[in-house]
Amino acid sequence: MTIGGTDVATPTPTQESASTPEDPKTVRENARAEAKAKAAALADILAPVRGRIILAQLVQILASAATIVPYIGIVELGRTLLAPGTLDTGRVWLVVWLVVGGLAARALFSFLALAITHFADLDLQARLRIRITDKLGRLPLGWFSRTSSGAVRKSVQNDVADLHYLVAHAQVEAAAAVLSPIFALVYCFVLDWRLGLLAIATVPLYALTYSWMARDLTAEMEKMDRGVARISATIVEFINGVAVVKTFGQTGKAHRRFIEAADEFNDDFAGYMGPMLRVQAITTVLISAPLILLVNLGVGYWLVDNGWVSPIELVGSTLIAMVLPSALLTVSTAVHTRQQASAAALRIADLLAEPELTIPENPKVPNGHDVVIEDVHFTYPPRLGVPSGVKALDGVSVTLREGTVTALVGPSGSGKSTLATLLPRFGDPDSGSVRIGGVDVREIATSELYRHVGFVLQDVQLLTMSVRDNIRLGRPEASDEEVYHAALAAQIHDRILDLPDGYDTIVGDAAHFSGGEAQRVSIARALLADTPILVLDEATAFADPESEAEIQKAIGALMVGRTVLVIAHRLGSITHADNIVVLDRGRVVEQGRHEELLAKGGLYSMMWAGYEAGTTRQDEKIARGASGDDSMIESNGVAR
């Protein structure tokens, strides 16, 4: 929405829904559906290494079986040492060597199991990163425009790394945590069934309290997520509209909205976590070593006193009972790790399922450089929680004659950028066609297409490499002289020479360009690529006055002799265009030369009147500031 001439961010559907209470049943159903999707994605991701994981778990069975040998040895050694009569030293050494053998077998099989899973993990990470990188290379450029670099990096690095512990450790450790106690408990029951029951006496109570604590966990976590989303929405809204709220004295009101959201989240969090922490404290006590020791020795004394078990058998079963808590914690950690890995797997699966840019089986070469856009319809893919796509273009038809300049103008959201980016295939239309030299761009090989179509956008991307390599990114074989010539034409040569290492200076290291300077480097890149068709998102829209003149000169050199499609933000810069196309709500409402459109008295005429009025006000403001008459501006440029 617009307040006082300033655009203020309107909450997206995601933000609005974040603060809208949902039916608990719906939340549970959504949570179950998401859990199923995560489980399916994880199963698919782990499919290449599932066989090796199972093999490692089988090996771990042997290690877990060997784990019980030392406990058996302690009991048997105690029986031998406490037996009346002459000490059987041969039996003592036999038991000792059996214990040593058991420990060695456990170490060997555990190492082998973990080695299998670690090699499987390395293989899986390599496979996934290759798949993701290959996928990124086949996605349309428009996907990168609507996806942050942080999200891409998270998929390639973090999400793949989140699978490491699950594959390399958790599966084997969970198997050990389950199997080792089972083997140990079997031995306890072999000694005496009463000792077996005593060893797990507190476990049922732990399981009951833990399940009670986790009964509403999914719904509460959803509620917490909505609370965090609401807080984030109020922060974004405040930052985006900070100029407006300060101008109209609404800063306190904006702060209150954030404080209210934070207080509500705090109350919900405290209301849920307070009782849960008390219950968690109880569950922790139920499997704590002192309580287990107290229960086993206290009840065990009664068993020994009644002659049902021997003291050494009680010692053995008590030692086994003491290791059960660590096994439960290991299983709990493995469950949490699996949930984390499932979420990462779902994100990776979503990325791998993104629609790819089609590659023509029999590519064609354009015959000429005229462009024909015919009856194009385009719908944005669903994103940011929006359930259905938004139609951006609705039956657009435009012809760009070879060697002419065509400008796209229209209100914000009219489809200008969407239409322009269909030419370099940032995306493909739902229907209709975009043809270059009589050939649909979908039938042109990508490498061939970018030899014909170049683009200079406002959002300049310079890579962490030398300035020279940044300029010749589109033509790596270009000579140094050609690079210098392009930089001169782009009005950036002298600035590059002032850098510590000139053209060899690394961007982001010793080379730090302003927005206007980076734009001129981008223009030099486009000049060197020398494509006959150029898509130009007016580069001076947000340039400072000092950079604007230099950029305009560079753009003038860039446009000579080319078929140009320019997205116009300032109408004054396209008055001499061969054809001006006026878009509104995804449709072409007018087109023609500047004078023709003014004579029609339509949307363009209204936009031009607004542009002239705004320019006049700006000129008057500058004049008043220069003469010291502008009483609203102080000497430091801050409004009173």
TrEMBL record:
Top-level taxon of the source organism: Bacteria
Protein's recorded name: Iron import ATP-binding/permease protein IrtA
Topological type in the membrane: Multi-pass membrane protein
CDD domains found in the cross-reference section: ABC_6TM_exporters (cd07346)
Region (Disordered): 1-30
Organism encoding this protein: Gordonia paraffinivorans
This protein's record includes keyword Membrane: yes
Gene Ontology molecular function: any one: hydrolase activity
